[in-house]
Amino acid sequence: MEKDLVIIGGGPGGYEAAIRGAQLGANVTLIEENKLGGTCLNRGCIPTKTFYKSAEVINCLKKADEFGVSLDKYNFDMHKAQKKKIEVVNKLVNGINMLLKGNGIEVVNGRAVFKGPKTLEVFCEGKTEEITASNIIIATGSSPSAVSVPGVDLKGVVTSDEVLNFEYIPKSMVILGGGVVGIEFAGIFASLGTQVTIVEFLPKILYRLDDELSRKLTVYLKKQSIRIVTGSALKEVKSYGSELKTIVGGSKGDLKFDCDLLLMAAGRKPNSEGLNLETAGIEYDKKGIKVYENYKTSAEGVYAIGDVIGGVMLAHIASEEGKVCVENIYGGNSKVNYNAIPSCVFSFPEAACVGFTEEEAKENNVEYVVGKSMFGANGKALTMGEGQGFIKVIAEKKSHKIIGVHIMGPHASDIVHEGSLAIQNSLTVEDIKDAIFAHPTLSEVFYEAVCGCIGKAIHSMPKKM
User: H helices then E strands: how many in the chain?
Assistant: First the structure.
């Protein structure tokens, strides 16, 4: 019997697409080789954020005296932190199981490979099952990229998957990669007392961020004793007793860093191998599966979404692509507005952005104005002891339509959605200016930055003419 819709991969893109399909009346089968929730829930976003919270608590304890709280000492127990991580992950995985069951979705635990354009062979617990479907969505996600240099197979060289299961705190760590993964782990381990060195091939960390945001965040990371080396590449890793010696090449010659641990965080690769895509006539390359309108692959009735198609690999992008793809399969006309997708970095302080950077606005010949407001002038931020950072808003010069929002500061990952809503709905500076923001709140910084675009911010010094 041919099924309506089969989805390969139970990560955020896959399981949300499955639920949306069921809501639209489809008979849905979801195939997952490992645990539901994919990388994000089991080996990425959620486990990382549980450790981030531990690091955040430690940072608060370090500043406790500022708030009149005196502590003789405190201890960090990695075993308890791991237990907390597992509890959170299991609770969310169980929640997804319940949602899928509640929506009448068949879940098959196994590995799927294509046997033909619309036929899958699923290997499950020593058994093989053949499944045929009218529509198939590939949502197999991504995995850490490998870097081919001598010594990367030595003990102590790990990926983000392994480091999340550590039971001890390394004394020193070199992180290869200054992207989101590298920066977040740097902040976490530095807070726990690890001496951290970041090695980034590009001229700046977090290269997708607005230049000003990247520069300012670099300063704050260095204040946390995190060493940052940009414009440099890993050349070799050597065993040095119980430690590793990393040899890094840069414009000024080779540098050597000793460490207990080398974390490989230099990007991720699409999980397209092993699916037998050639048999189904599905085009792909090392960047991922090639897709066309509404995420259609080169094979009729087969679609692909999320990390496996390359691009910016974020869980919420995969989720949105999955829902939009399913809606259009069943007669809708949905689209993903990629300009309104927020991106967050859980560093100390947090960073988040949505829409155009100043550099992108210039590249696209967009005439724009900028408004900026500092957290240091915000009452709520100061009471929290987190007055570092700012919000920058970019708007079109003529229309005043908001096209970019960039944040570095407390709860940036929460505030950025105000910018996302503004961009999604083509709101102007005046639309936001006429709204009333509660006082005292962190969101007032966003309001002030918006008003600053037209010189009407109340709590900012006027610009000299």
Answer: 14, 24
Q: What is d(CA 356, CA 210) in angstroms, rounded to the nearest whole number?
A: 8
**The length of the chain, given as a count of residues:** 465
CA distance 167 to 418: 38
| Confidence at 464, pLDDT banded by 50, 70, 90 | low
459 is catalytic: no
Query: CA of 263: how far to CAs of 95, 258, 272, 401, in Å?
Result: 31, 13, 24, 42
Determine which helix (DSSP H) or strand (DSSP E) holds 245, and give its type and residue range.
strand 243-250
What is the radius of gyration, based on Cα positions, of the chain? 24
Contact 170, 157 (CB under 8 A): no
Contact indicator for 231, 253 with CB cutoff of 8 Å = no
Give every CB contact of residue 143 below 8 A, 6+ residues apart in sequence. 39, 161, 268, 269, 271
Q: pTM to 2 decimals?
A: 0.94
Catalytic residue among 79, 400, 417, 439: 439
* Residues contacting residue 377 through CB under 8 Å, at least 6 positions apart: 445, 448, 459, 460
Q: Identify whether the C-beta of residue 242 lies closer than 8 Å to the C-beta of residue 249.
A: no
Residue 70, both tokens:
């005196």
Domains of the chain: 3-144+269-336 (3.50.50.60), 157-266 (3.50.50.60), 341-452 (3.30.390.30)
Residue type, 319: S
CA angle 326-268-43, nearest 5°?
Answer: 80
% the chain with pLDDT above 70: 99
Output the six-digit token pair for 394.
């970019």
Mind listing the pLDDT tens digit for each residue in 296-349? Answer: 999 999 999 999 999 999 999 999 999 999 999 999 999 999 999 999 999 999
Q: Give the pLDDT mean for 278-286.
A: 95
Cβ–Cβ under 8 Å, residues 443 and 453? no
